Amino acid sequence: MKLPLLLLASSIHYVSVSASPIFEEFFSPGVGTRGAVASEAQECSYIGRDLLARGGNAVDAMIGTTFCVGVIGMYHSGIGGGGFMIVRDKKGNYEAIDFRESAPAAAFEGMYQGNVNGSIYGGLSVGVPGEVRGFEYVHKKYGSLPWKTVLQGAIKVAQDGFIGKPKEINADMARFIEKTIKDHHNFFVEDPSWAQDFTRNGQLIPEGETMTRRRYARTLQAIAEHGADAFYTGAFAESMVKTIQETNGTITLEDYKNYDVISREVLHTEYKGYDVYGISSPAGGAVSLNILNTMNGYSDQDEDRNTTLHIYIEAMKFAYGARLRLGDPDFVDGVPELEHEMLNATTAERIRSKIDPRKTQKIENYNPDGIYSSDGHGTSHVVTADGDGMAVSLTTTVNLIFGSFLMDPLTGVILNNEMNDFSIPGVPNEFGFAPAEANFIRPNKRPLSSCTPLIVSNKDGSLFAVIGAAGGSRIISATTQVAWRVLTSPSWSIKDAVREPRVHNQLIPNTLLVEKKFSSYNVPSLVERGHNITWVDEGLSTVQALTRDSAGVFQVAPEPRQKNSGGVTL
């Protein structure tokens, strides 16, 4: 049955961020030495490119693009959520920025005992949003254009609307809305706050008609004029807190006021002559870099590709096993030391000695503690770079699709359900594994995340690649596979690496997910080695990436598994 809804299609009418038009010739298509942007929404990537053309840098382009993605892809991102980004400045210095949602001050370890659904729906599931404060922080430190200018593209899209053609539907949006209605209820129509944006005359807006988010536009305009304080204090904060508390939440105005951005440790590993940089816990950088650290010891990866793929999957499983001991380092002892151990040469050699190239192993060999950690699903990734070598890799999320199912009636903000990313004491998962104590709730703590933004440089320090993904626990595997392929084989372009079918095994459950377009030539070899294979459709993970060659020419690789995804160069 066709869903009668405007689905934020890939032909959104983009409005330039200034009154004067920018003609396509100005961008010199095909040259692409001044900058690049890739995101899940082509029209939002145009906004980022426009900002670069006006003298902005990679940070300006990232902010403008991501604010726009939050307008269009509101089902998994927006200013009601948070995330992580790694920034490379034009001198080659790196900063890892944590703007992840935090638990409210009133949160406590057993708050979901007997009420697991409270971590998923309603006010009790909401963490303190971090995106607006995070963007203000990075703009003040690295931005070039005025803050107000950077937000205008997203404001225009929210105010004037986005329109979809029947033959160019955002299939992801259709699937998410249809599944949400089927699994839960049609709050898009039944809830007055949602209905303001999603309905006309009591019905879901039909395909081909314009959808606007004018309350959200007004909220963004206030943020543009008055900064992040317009979101974290005053009428907007009061309205969001009221919405949360009326649905059983405990967040207060003090929680909003006290939210702060954290500069985390930048993690680093070398792989095949490249320097790879990621973000420490509670992000997933250590897990990704651990896989590359292990694989770096194999020099003949192109000789027997079946064996190499098996070894890579085994390295992935050992890395996911180590992840179960990670958590917010401000609350969990020993996390930095564990991450450093994960990235040293001795650990890589030890893991390689445990990998059997002929077969897979029992799960306790990878996860001796028998624990598990929670994961989210609703994420979006943006990559940007400019001609000076500045780059940003960013992942943003409201956690599960449509977050907590709460939309604040004043601001039009969809509130996250990030509290579901914490582990709940006494609640084993469906496979009988105990929850990871390192990820238990504490006041103001940030839950463990799979977000894995990466930036790669050449040995001379010049920028080579910017990579990241969306897709819950598959973020780590998808990001790492793309990096692994493009860094291992010089003949692979970044577009080749992103297009290549993916595999995923997060250890719990010990099942190898294989995309259906994966070569049937490789699969029998994996079965013979003992892998428990489940075929899955493409699109469970979505990657955005770009590279820059030695001549300074950019290549963008937006995710082909997303209809609306797009990348542009300048």
Automatic annotation (TrEMBL):
- So which residues are the signal peptide here? 1-19
- Give the reaction(s) catalysed: glutathione + H2O = L-cysteinylglycine + L-glutamate; an S-substituted glutathione + H2O = an S-substituted L-cysteinylglycine + L-glutamate; an N-terminal (5-L-glutamyl)-[peptide] + an alpha-amino acid = 5-L-glutamyl amino acid + an N-terminal L-alpha-aminoacyl-[peptide]
- Alphabetically list the UniProt keywords: Acyltransferase, Hydrolase, Signal, Transferase
GO CC annotation terms, alphabetical:
plasma membrane
Q: What is its EC number?
A: 2.3.2.2, 3.4.19.13
What GO terms are given for molecular function?
Answer: glutathione hydrolase activity; leukotriene C4 gamma-glutamyl transferase activity
What are the GO BP annotations of this UniProt entry? glutathione catabolic process
- Which residues are responsible for catalysis? 379 (nucleophile)
Q: Which domain of life is it from?
A: Eukaryota
InterPro entries given in the database record: GGT_lsub (IPR043138), GGT_peptidase (IPR000101), GGT_ssub_C (IPR043137), Ntn_hydrolases_N (IPR029055)
* Pathway the protein acts in: Sulfur metabolism; glutathione metabolism
Q: Extract the SUPFAM superfamilies matched here.
A: N-terminal nucleophile aminohydrolases (Ntn hydrolases)
Matching entries from Pfam families are given as: G_glu_transpept (PF01019)
NCBIfam families annotated for this entry? g_glut_trans
Family membership, please give it.
Belongs to the gamma-glutamyltransferase family.
Protein name (record)? Glutathione hydrolase
- Source organism per entry reads Fusarium pseudoanthophilum
